[in-house]
Amino acid sequence: MTTIAIPEHSGFGLANLPYGVYSAAGSPPRVGTRVGDTVVDLATVLAGSDPAAETLFATPTLATFMATGPQKWADVREKLQQILSGDVPDSALHPVDSVTMHLPCEFADYVDFYASENHASNVGRLFRPDNPEPLMPNWKHLPVGYHGRSSTIVESGVDVVRPQGQRKGPQDESPTFGPSIRLDIEAELAFIVGVGNEMGTRISTGDASMHLFGAVIFNDWSARDIQAWEYVPLGPNLGKSFASSISPWVVPMAALAEAKVDTPTQDPTPLPYLHMDSPWGLDISLEVEWNGHVVSRPPYSTMYWSPAQMLAHLTVNGARTRTGDIFASGTISGPEKNQRGAFLELTWGGKEPVAVGDEERTFLEDGDTIVIRATAPGANGETIDFGEVRTTILPAR
Ligand code: CA
Predict the structure, then answer these.
(1) pLDDT tens-digit profile of 205-226?
(2) What's the gap in Å between 90 CA and the centre of ligand 1?
(3) In angstroms, what is the span from residue 330 Cα to ligand 1's centroid?
(4) Are 373 and 219 in contact (CB under 8 A)?
(5) How does pLDDT run across 226-245, given as a tens digit for each residue?
(6) pTM of the full predicted structure?
(7) CA distances from 317 to 143, 205, 269 (A)
(8) Other beta carbons within 10 Å of 367
(9) Under the phi-then-psi rule, with left for phi > 0, alpha for psi from -120 to 50, and beta for the rest, what region is 141?
(10) Do 43 and 275 contact (CB within 8 A), yes or no?
(11) Upper half-sphere CA count for residue 60 (Cβ side, 13 Å)
(12) Most buried among 27, 121, 188, 252, using CB within 10 Å?
């Protein structure tokens, strides 16, 4: 038996306890949590106190546990906080560097929102420079979103192949085909639905916390040249669907209670189904690293729409959500230039290169590595660490 060491200032203390699917060498994937620099096998440590431990956690997906609902989520979290502060069996413990992390579950549907006013305004100015109003008329009345591709969501460490496609610049006479030359990131957070809703019903803003299981960092890879040519009038398609990358540890919403902050003032007042007396956002700080150099620090606290409003809007027409549905926030951009979460904005459409070490860069080149990290304030003065999503760009095939 061992007491797990938690290094000082670790963002993986007992206030965090994220869930993830890991595999130790030679063993099949199972559900674990991370404490300090140790991955803890949940079926093993909960075996003595939870008859369902084997069913819920000795399995290669977090979906079984997520589907149990908020009472069970709270019970397990409380139990883990007790058990993991004492001695635990050595057989449950693995150094974090010795395991392989996997996707937490098979994702059901994926929707990407557009909840940052700074981002939407910047993109409006870039894509519609002649329009004096950068936001579209609907933007402050509903969380704008589109339906994305869940089958190409991949975990940190999976390389992404540069997409090929059609593009047509404003000066080009006709479209051409080839590897994207304006490949970009979008630094976002994504929220995973634990318990869905039946078709024909909807989830209110007040009930969102009964359905939302946790959050991950989300990098919505975007081929701007493909996107700009294809997106009118139905929105993004192949410019986005080739890959999205997530951090492997799912931070439970319960760990983010201390990070709740008011969203910016919502004016005009949203329609009743979106109205909240105190819409909550999250004080989560992101960091975008490009080939080892931090180029941006997007603040999630500046996001206009609450995750609760995004889920309410997603289901208000009676659309079904299921365990493993995932919705992303949209690019997180703060008011300052060094808080922009996409290179499109950071380099102002490629016109203002940024310094990446000794190099001046605009969009991604083959071999580039992007790492996005995120942290939030947690209970008892602890920091909640989301870990990272790390990706290298491979040449087009
Ligand atoms: Ca996006």
Answers:
(1) 999 999 999 999 999 999 999 9
(2) 42
(3) 4
(4) no
(5) 999 999 999 999 999 999 99
(6) 0.98
(7) 14, 14, 20
(8) 10
(9) alpha
(10) no
(11) 10
(12) 188
